[in-house]
Design a protein that fits this description.
Distance between the termini: 28 Å
Number of helices: 0
Strand content: over 45%
Helix content: under 10%
Low-confidence stretches: none
Mean pLDDT: 77
Order of helices and strands: EEEE
Strand order of the largest sheet: 1-2
Largest sheet: 2 strands, antiparallel
Shape: globular
């Protein structure tokens, strides 16, 4: 199994955070982004967001990820 390849950049002045993942499988507990705009750009592969209620698969494109992402 490959190690996760994740790089994060954060600018405190603007509050903008960029997260770059390549060949990564990461998982987080259920959470939301109530006071932020979350945009995903998928260059290769896919992103899977899953909760108890549903699973959403995002493929190559640019997305505005809903605050309650599933």
């Amino acid at each position: 199994m490959m190690a996760n390849n994740i790089r994060c950049l954060y600018n405190a002045q603007t509050g903008i955070e960029l997260i770059f993942c390549k060949d990564s499988t990461i998982s987080y507990p259920l959470h939301n982004h109530v006071s932020v705009l979350t945009i995903g750009i998928i260059l290769d592969g896919s992103l899977v967001l899953t909760t108890n209620k549903e699973t959403r698969v995002y493929k190559q494109n640019i997305y505005d990820i809903p605050i309650c992402a599933a």
